[in-house]
Amino acid sequence: MKKFNFRKVLDGLTASSPGGSSGGGSGGGSGAGGGSMHPGGTAGAVGTPRDEIQETLTSDYFQICKTVRHGFPYLPTALAFDPVQKILAIGTRTGAIRILGRPGVDCYCQHESGAAVLQLQFLINEGALVSASADDTLHLWNLRQKRPAILHSLKFNRERITYCHLPFQSKWLYVGTERGNTHIVNIESFILSGYVIMWNKAIELSTKTHPGPVVHLSDSPRDEGKLLIGYENGTVVLWDLRSKRADLRAYYDEAIHSVAWHHEGKQFMCSHSDGSLTLWNLKSPNRPFQTTIPHGKIQRDGKKTESCKPILKVEYKTCKNSEPFVIFSGGLSYDKACRRPSLTIMHGKAITVLEMDHPIVDFLTLCETPYPNEFQEPYAVVVLLEKDLIVVDLTQSNFPIFENPYPIDIHESPVTCTEYFADCPPDLIPVLYSVGAKHKKQGYSNKEWPVSGGAWNLGAQTYPEIIITGHADGSVKFWDASAITLQMLYKLKTSKVFEKQKLGEGKATAEIVEEDPFAVQMMYWCPESRIFCVAGVSAYVVVYKFSKHEVNTEIASLEVRLQYEVEDIITPEPEIIPPFPDASSQLPSLKNLSGSTNTVACEGVMKDSIPCLSVKSRPVRMPPGYQADLVIQLVWVDGEPPQQITSLAVNSAYGLVAFGNCNGLAVVDFMQKTVLLSMGTLDLYGSSDPYQRQPRSPRKSKQFAADNFCMRGLSNFYPDLTKRIRTSYQSLTELSDSPVSLELERCKSPTSVKGSRKLSLPTDLKTDLDHVNGHCTSPTSQSCSSGKRLSSVDVTKANRRGPGRPPFRKAQSAACMEISLPVTTEGYISRRAMLQQLHGISTFSHDERHYTAHTWMNKENRENSFSRSRSSSVSSIDRDSKEAITALYFMESFARKNDSTVSPCLWVGTGLGMVLILSLNLPASDELRQTEPVMVSPSGTVLTLKGAVLTFACLDCMGTLTHPPYEVWRDPNSADDGEKTRKRKLVMHSPSSSQDMGDHQFAVICSEKQAKVFSLPSQTCLYVHNITETSFLLRADVVTLCNSVCLACFCANGHIMTLSLPSLRPLLDVNYLPVTDMRIARTFCFTNEGQALYLSSPTEIQRLTYSQEMCDNLQDMLGDLFTPVETPEAQNRGFLKGLFGGSGQAFDREELFGEATAGKASRSLAQHIPGSGGIEGVRGAAGGVIGDLTRARIALDERGQKLGELDERTASMMASAEAFSKHAHEVMLKYKDKKWYQF
């Protein structure tokens, strides 16, 4: 009788989690979504390793915390600059604020309400910022802490905020409203003053119409007691705050957009909706002193200048030694409809128009002085565009722009995929920077970047980090991400290996995507060997090698046939829900109706054995950096286009690259430039296939019916589909949290194909899917729920649109990755649809490759939409014979049960949860490697999990992560002959001697549903953990943390989880964020040292940490926004100027607006909401002793600050006492000897 180990049973119990059972049975039993066979999986208690591995990681090592956000603020709305601190703030439509200083100083804050930011105002040199948001709330942000927090908020209940103005060194904020009233808020207490300027008091009593909202507020540079109020309808009022009446009123026929003062306070300039600028003199307010339409042309009658587009903003800045600058946005003539947005700079008689690539949101002129009543001396203009931030140098006559040091061009071409590498070899960053620096652009201003505020230090974290982003135009960017900063190192253009597509050739090519055919879909990088591999959306793989030398050479290319041949299937019972309703049912085994159009080609030729793109055949100059070594392209087979690549792996030691799609697997030797394996997934099993699929009959020739509706392209019926429009950022819509309206962003446009294949799909989905909860969807939303063919009658019926339903939306750019999910009749998104789109599997056959017949009558219930049925019945396998390759991994491993030593293997994971091991037989010596063929053969080993396989890893017998072997980098183009001829140096991470290796290793395999740890070579399932029953994993990575190893998982329900290895104990489970769109799902990735990232918007990368240690140290790593700077002194105005230049009396706002004089404002008008203030900074650093120390440090800082203030006050009191004593003594001496009558 076998001994019973009670301690190991307890270990098994502790490995369970709230999210799912973890135990030994056959791979977790057959719970919801279970029912799967698990050959090779045995009871966890029995299969526990003989020597218990001591795991060091506990839940105390983990905590989730956002670290920093990089990139351009998405959908910007507002701009502000502190001229003393020299920091810049940008507000956005999503309620975010980004504060930027010197490189490294970059802070992100978010309004909890998410309301758009209307306006930002710095309290200049005070370390504070006021934001006005679209929900009519004012917020005061404290910037004197590393993570700004709100000190006060003031919510207006009855009026809508339209404009705010805070005079320099004032604590009273003027707030204009939509009703035309002006309120005054005390910045210190954030309480409304009783002083209100009502619109009906400000305008003439005889005026019969409302002047409109307040569009401008500013105090006179000459007299702070005069407030200039601009109303939308063209009325300007100079209000005397002391006497509470209007000093002057000016009227103009055109609506006002902005107002700007001359620094002397005698003139002001207005910009209007007809493209005109009016200059007004305070002495004659009846009509403008000067009116110009800068871009207007004089009409034929010679009298009137034509009106232009509105001038949205004007700034009027004076110089001591030259003419003033008038800078404005807009105002171009209407006759040039295609003219780009422009900023105009008028300096004296010279007019310079700077054309921008994107619409202008706002601009600010940076001046030498913060005082409004001095010569402004402008030196730069910050221009905030919809998708860019530029700064123009005004000190040079050609107005060059400054080189931007921030990483705000992440979205230069939309990001399609990301990879993150922490703790990579330290020599990589300088090497990449040296080859990238040669591509720097010229023509920038030679001056320093003017936004130079804040302070930043390197912090304690010193390991190098690299982020790689793949883009829609085929470019790949390498970024230095060390110490929570981001700086671009190197840019690689993968499209350069292909011939450019000439216009007009579209119909004669084999391209499967029309827009962005070079979009990067997957990347694989080996930092040690510097091998880099890219899989593109047009079904190709490019292998790159790194060289420091330029080379002129031809690009080697291979073509691979990878197509799964099956016959058309006609299912007699369409009403039955398929057993794989949302998974591989979308890996179409059915020949679809659109598929049958390809042989009725315009050219009359069936496409076969031709790739989608053509590789350059002539020698190509390759600059230093990454140089293309080999291009592998999948080809069309019998008129069927190749499917997109779903998995990719490279190994430099073996010299092999492997990739798979929903048809099968290909393995290529990139050293000998030969294809070693090109096989359908089913053929990989051989006799080991656990699902005994029925043999197929030979593929039938396709029958065509000329009158079939589907034979004609959809573009014949909806011509707008053929007009490809490049989508703007607005098409990258932020989606609502409703599970029904989730539109997922996808990497390729599905609506039109170059060549003979036209989009022709059954249109019965259109009425159901065009508008799901009001969201217009894409025509790619078909799934293969049924194998029933649609007759032409069915299709015609299906084509009838519901009332008011528009046809399919216009085609979207590949770059925008936007696709709609199949939605079940109950409104839940198909879980599989999302996952398949994440992995790029062509399940609904984007790019018109495999549109399958679909009947919407099949109703999926809620369980079916979230959990996959696993049935081994013949019918289910028949119906879903395609099995995508979803994960690949090269490693030294035991391929079979009876192996005694490790050997090179390729682990293959599929969309049905199957794991296959392929043996790699490599030539024994380095010399033979170049000539002898490499043998790849299935080992017969098959392991199973629930759900599509996501990731593999290998641990040695001590539980340490075993890295795949690699070849040490050597320059392939080195001038040194010894470098070229020397032997390849391979690093085998696995210990060589069997004594060190032990007699077994652990294989860690994670699928979208569960994780398993197998002991090899016995193939015993030691541990299994069902990670989720109701959702599915989007990303899983085995990572190192604190010299140990764990499995990090990101789930579609927003949870981030970590599991210990090898025992799979849950260590962390935090509901971090819901996956509201495909962008997050496609770009989320974990890396070592507890770091992760994802694309939070189309333009921004959000980094986070799941390490407690990094959370504790984060405060030290972040930059300081506020640094002590002396406020510059105001210029001495001189005696005469002071006497004649303005009002002599001082203006006391406190006396005028304070409660004693003005009284209290109505309570119902605005509600004061106290903020979290400085506590937020403490809370961010909280946790254990570090939190206590941080709190103590902040308390000491505050105490020190107060003591400092006390010292200053004491010193000033002593000084004044001494002065008083001195004066008293002088008086006493003066009158000491005088008699009383002499006084």
Describe the structure.
Residues 15-48, 777-811 are annotated as: Disordered. Keywords: Cell membrane, Coiled coil, Cytoplasm, Exocytosis, Membrane, Phosphoprotein, Repeat, WD repeat. Belongs to the WD repeat L(2)GL family. Pfam families: Lgl_C, LLGL, WD40. α19 runs antiparallel to α20 (1184-1231). The protein contains 20 helices and 65 strands. It starts with 5 loop residues before the first helix and ends in an 8-residue tail after the last helix. The longest helix has 48 residues, at 1184-1231.
Number of helices: 20
Rg from Cα: 35 Å
Q: State the shape.
A: elongated
Could you tell me the mean pLDDT?
A: 76
Main sheet record: 5 strands, antiparallel
Uncertain segments of ≥5 residues (pLDDT<50)?
1-50, 567-604, 695-832, 839-880, 990-995, 1175-1187
Q: Identify the strand order in the major beta sheet.
A: 6-7-8-9-65
The termini sit apart by 124 Å
The assigned structural class equals alpha+beta
> What percent of the residues sit in helical stretches (DSSP H or I)?
10-25%
Strand content: 25-35%
Count the beta strands. 65
Region (Disordered): 15-48, 777-811
InterPro entries: Lethal2_giant, Lgl_C_dom, LLGL2, V_SNARE_CC, WD40/YVTN_repeat-like_dom_sf, WD40_repeat_CS, WD40_repeat_dom_sf, WD40_rpt
Keywords: Cell membrane, Coiled coil, Cytoplasm, Exocytosis, Membrane, Phosphoprotein, Repeat, WD repeat
Protein name: Syntaxin-binding protein 5-like
